[in-house]
Specification:
With 115 residues, the chain is an all-alpha fold. The chain has one domain: HPT domain (Four Helix Bundle (Hemerythrin (Met), subunit A)), CATH 1.20.120.160. The protein is built from 5 helices and no strands. Helix 2 packs antiparallel against helix 5 and helix 4 runs antiparallel to helix 5.
Length: 115
């Protein structure tokens, strides 16, 4: 199951310098483990303001990669933070982690288009 709309992704980035695209992808891949660890910490500490902020930030980054399912999961976590609501947060988080992991794999593959 693909997370990234590859056609739209390639269209969005067609006028960018290859180095820039690779840098955008690599920054996301490198920051991903820390982003997920931070969200995990926000959930564990019931830090709703930070959960809202960090999920919103992740949602924005994911939007660059045209991965609507993953973007939607981040949006739902953002809303949970805004509403100080822990209902279903665990399943949202694990779903997000799993699907964002697929995004990482797909980005590694897409990098070949920009070498």
């Amino acid at each position: 199951m693909e997370m990234i709309d590859k056609e739209q992704f390639l269209e969005n980035f067609q006028y960018f310098d290859n180095e820039v695209v690779l840098e955008i992808i690599n920054i996301f891949i490198n920051e991903y483990p820390e982003r997920m660890a931070t969200l995990r910490k926000n959930i564990d500490e019931k830090d709703f303001d930070q959960l809202k902020f960090n999920a919103h930030s992740l949602k924005g980054v994911i939007a660059n990669f045209v991965a609507p399912q993953v973007q939607e999961l981040a949006r739902q976590l953002e809303i949970k933070g805004a509403n100080s609501d822990l209902t279903d947060v665990e399943s949202l988080y694990s779903d997000l982690k799993e699907k964002a992991g697929i995004v990482i794999e797909e980005l590694e593959e897409l990098k070949k288009n920009f070498k």
